[in-house]
């Protein structure tokens, strides 16, 4: 890990983020933009860093599961029947292809629990601006590439994500692994 990146990420996540959230408390219409800015800035810094992750975790929000699906995935995403009605099927296939861990979190507390249990060296996280930015702050110094979800039906229901962006992020970390070998 490059010390100056470590320092800059710390500054962005522990100083700039709370300041922007304070400003966002007054400028509510700008809060999501500030959170997205923190996610972009963090991604930029992570992708300039040098580290060699052994264990990669793909962390997904619960709202990406089809709202009519009755399978409980929180503790075991592999219970998915892979019917293809939501992107969970494709995301599991990505995790299998690249031999990485995958989990679904219903909120910040579960996400922290998953990270504590899996102990990843790097995380590809999908979520909304709020959960992604706060999750990246919570898991610092673990390198996280954050990908914003898409919300065609509004927030927190039947959300989706660009699979290519997720795959590119996984490949970026895998590439780091290979550089070590
Ligand atoms: S792909 Fe999996 S999670 Fe999505 S609706 Fe089908 S069974 Fe449920």
From TrEMBL:
Transmembrane segments: 6-27
InterPro entries linked: DUF116 (IPR002829)
A Pfam family matched in the record: DUF116
Protein name: DUF116 domain-containing protein
Keywords: Membrane, Transmembrane, Transmembrane helix
